[in-house]
Amino acid sequence: MKALQSTTVYWDTLVHPVLHNRPIYLVATDNGLAQVTLPHESTMERVEAWVKRKIPNAILVRDLAQVAPYKQQLQEYLDGSRRSFTFALDFRGTAFQNSVWQALFEIPYGEMRSYAEIAERVGNPKAVRAVGTANGMNPIPIVVPCHRVIGKNNTLTGFRGGLQMKEELLHLEGVQAFVNKGHEKYRF
């Protein structure tokens, strides 16, 4: 019987004032950044559970050097000196989720899109709710900017990190053109 090969998964944390000085975890494989936690969900237990579900036979190793390029670019973004990320991403979802996450990644800095626009972008204009669900399951928030997705009526809607954090990330990018009357749950 052939033994299963293990995959090394690297992690480190980042603390930043924009994140209210709470740590977030950055998780990467040799293929790219695979997960970023949000401050309220940042526990090693959550990271371990996600890795176990998404990367069978993973060996989780804290490796500052392996995670450093991701951490540096994310730090620069939060400092306001970076507008795009140049490293590889390692999406771990269904084909539909991956297509939604890729569409999110393509939303330019300082711009917003509606859930309906993302549904059209992935070739399924009737899948607005499914886009919202995939958006909420985005394993690489901030880098894959799910915070740039708003309701069709220009309101803040459904962000796993909370609407306050969504608003703060949009303000960091200079975006003011939204209505702050959203709802924590999805309204597309």
From TrEMBL:
Enzyme class: transferase
InterPro entries linked to this entry: MethylDNA_cys_MeTrfase_AS (IPR001497), MethylDNA_cys_MeTrfase_DNA-bd (IPR014048), MethylDNA_cys_MeTrfase_DNAb (IPR036217), MGMT (IPR023546), MGMT_N_sf (IPR036631), WH-like_DNA-bd_sf (IPR036388)
Protein name: Methylated-DNA--protein-cysteine methyltransferase
Domain Methylated-DNA-[protein]-cysteine S-methyltransferase DNA binding: residue ranges: 95-175
Note: This enzyme catalyzes only one turnover and therefore is not strictly catalytic. According to one definition, an enzyme is a biocatalyst that acts repeatedly and over many reaction cycles.
Subcellular location: Cytoplasm
Broad class of the protein's primary localization: cytoplasm
Annotated family: Belongs to the MGMT family.
Keywords recorded for this protein, A-Z: Cytoplasm, DNA damage, DNA repair, Methyltransferase, Transferase
Function: Involved in the cellular defense against the biological effects of O6-methylguanine (O6-MeG) and O4-methylthymine (O4-MeT) in DNA. Repairs the methylated nucleobase in DNA by stoichiometrically transferring the methyl group to a cysteine residue in the enzyme. This is a suicide reaction: the enzyme is irreversibly inactivated.
Pfam family, one: DNA_binding_1
Record's catalysed reaction(s): a 6-O-methyl-2'-deoxyguanosine in DNA + L-cysteinyl-[protein] = S-methyl-L-cysteinyl-[protein] + a 2'-deoxyguanosine in DNA; a 4-O-methyl-thymidine in DNA + L-cysteinyl-[protein] = a thymidine in DNA + S-methyl-L-cysteinyl-[protein]
Originating species: Paenibacillus glycanilyticus
EC number: 2.1.1.63
PROSITE patterns recorded: MGMT
PANTHER family: METHYLATED-DNA--PROTEIN-CYSTEINE METHYLTRANSFERASE, METHYLATED-DNA--PROTEIN-CYSTEINE METHYLTRANSFERASE, INDUCIBLE
